[in-house]
Amino acid sequence: MVRRDRLPRMREWWVHVGLLAIPLLAAYLYIPPPKLSPALHSWKLSGKYFTYKGLRIFYQDSFGVVGSPEIVVLLHGFPTSSYDWYKIWEGLTHRFHRVIALDFLGFGFSDKPRPHHYSIFEQASIVEALLQHLGLQNRRVNLLSHDYGDIVAQELLYRFKQNRSGRLTIKSLCLSNGGIFPETHHPLLLHKILKDGGLLSPILTRMLNFFVFSRGLVPPVFGPYTRPSENELWDMWATIRHNDGNLIVDSLLQYINQRKKFRRRWVGALASVTIPIHFIYGPFDPVHPYPEFLELYRKTLPRSTVSILDDHISHYPQLEDPMGFLNAYMGFINSF
């Protein structure tokens, strides 16, 4: 039996152990970001930056077909970056005069301020600011989007429909595997935990490491035969960890709540669309499952055309089946 006079000393000892453990644990959890692979390093070097309200935004801008007036702007998904498009980039330059992509604020090689209220509205304004920076604000552009980028595209479409001066002029819109309907969106468990972590969020995000990312955040949304390699996973993780991006994942995930709140605005913009619109769908997607998502999409947007890729293609169709994705997009672009 422990003597009563020893209890205070034992408590004091545990307090000291705890105080010593906290900085040690913090040092342990701060793992330096991984080095960029040669391919990802080359992608970064070939890109540029522009400033939006004091924040640096990374973008790529490639010139393709000479004499063509066509411009395509690519909008990436969560939680990755513009590098998601690298497998179809060259193919797009064979069809378009300008191929443009950006890393949204908080993603990839763009700035990742914290604390910061990240919103779909701000991301849409950044896209507009980029095109103004490039002198393309009066040009008609084709939007090609994925996942999170689909919602940004919806906001841009809403502004376009309102005929607001200085906004984007959209020629066509192609969406892919995005949660445009809150009711058919089934986020991963890790997404739910990080989004609703509350006071635990700072701890949870700091504990987000490559092991957690590579086991719980990415593989579940790839098809059984199209899982990314270890090197590809490290490239994805490197873009997230750049500028301590893992520490703001919970803030970025608030787009899920924004999508519910502004459903009428964003789904309404799609439902009344008059420009050519297309959807490229990987049907093995657990986040936007078949046939639930597709049935609602076709009911809501009867004028839209749809390309359904092979049964085993999942949430990242442009990475899992780049040729199938590119062929589907070119078929759409060449149809009008």
TrEMBL record:
Principal cellular location given in the protein's record: endoplasmic reticulum
Cited InterPro entries: AB_hydrolase_1, AB_hydrolase_fold, AB_hydrolase_sf, Epox_hydrolase-like
GO molecular function, one term: monoacylglycerol lipase activity
GO terms under cellular component: endoplasmic reticulum membrane
Record keywords, A-Z: Endoplasmic reticulum, Hydrolase, Membrane, Transmembrane, Transmembrane helix
Domain AB hydrolase-1: 71-162
GO biological process, any: acylglycerol catabolic process
Membrane topology: Multi-pass membrane protein
Localisation: Endoplasmic reticulum membrane
Family annotation (PANTHER family): HYDROLASE, PUTATIVE (AFU_ORTHOLOGUE AFUA_2G14860)-RELATED, MONOACYLGLYCEROL LIPASE
Family: Belongs to the AB hydrolase superfamily.
Stated name of the protein: Mesoderm specific transcript
Native organism: Myotis lucifugus (Little brown bat)
Gene field: MEST
